[in-house]
Amino acid sequence: MSPLTMTAVGKRYRTGWAVRDCSFTIPEGGVVALVGPNGAGKSTLLRMAAGLARPTTGEVSTFGTPVRGRIHPHVSFLPQRRSLYRELTVREQVRACAAMNDRWSTDRVHEVLGLLAGVDHDAKVGTLSAGALTQVAIAMALRRLPRLLLLDEPLSDLDPLARDEMLRIIMTEVADRGTTVVMSSHVLSDVREVCDHILLIDEGRVQVNGEIEEILARHRILIGPATGRSDVDGTVISASRTERQSTLLLREPGPTPEGWASTEPDLESLVMGYLRAARERRSSP
Ligand SMILES: Nc1ncnc2c1ncn2[C@@H]1O[C@H](COP(=O)(O)OP(=O)(O)OP(=O)(O)O)[C@@H](O)[C@H]1O
């Protein structure tokens, strides 16, 4: 059963459509990078998956159950704005959460505090740095033992050390418990090393969705003469040209024509190619 499925999902705010006609399925286990530029619709997608925003069109399901205004018991969501009690100390915050959740044991409280080795457990939450706040919120989200963990920009406030530590904790969770993690970021390099699946969105639409290795294998970068591409077979995603040469990103390419050199793209150039193409479509009349 897929942890998260969206079918023809759209979300319109008063300002316009934030998400349009999104259909995708997330496989179970592993880390999905939800990537897109600022304002692409990442938070809106995650909020709909968590039951905090209602789709205007289509249907969102988690573990086969339609999300209708309430979060699935096996799903945990870390919003961009961390919702914690600022007047409590870190220790009190974790205990308060345990007291409100009958699935939490005393052991679980110690586990959460154990994950927060670099954070002062007696500091008031309101005095913590943004990075430490994020660490507390992620540790608490993890200890709810979700089968699907939705993280909205979890790494944006973290320094490089804290970021590596958080990624290590998340990867341990995935390996030990088979948790599925969907992690949004507008910086691909932040999530690249831990994700095996990518969901690229731009202007609220899915541009790319799938296993990274499979997606890369279906694309090629072709470099050839500046004069053109008439003999190139496949779907041209994006094209650029200098006086000397043309560079194409191709999906499902045919045989490489004479005079062209072909290489497999890395994920960064593939993402850039799709985003550039989307920008060109927007700016052309
Ligand atoms: N509550 C809201 N009311 C009106 N418009 C909204 C609301 N939330 C988001 N939007 C708009 O919807 C679009 C998508 O926003 P969203 O926050 O989902 O994107 P994002 O990819 O998460 O961006 P970022 O990386 O900057 O957080 C943006 O144009 C945003 O201004």
TrEMBL record:
One of its GO terms (molecular function) is ATP binding. CDD domains: ABC_DR_subfamily_A (cd03230). Keywords: ATP-binding, Nucleotide-binding, Transport. Residues 4-228 form the ABC transporter domain. SUPFAM superfamilies: P-loop containing nucleoside triphosphate hydrolases. The keyword Transmembrane does not apply. The keyword Nucleotide-binding applies. InterPro entries: AAA+_ATPase, ABC_transporter-like_ATP-bd, ABC_Transporter_VariousFunc, P-loop_NTPase. This is ABC-2 type transport system ATP-binding protein. It comes from Amycolatopsis sacchari.
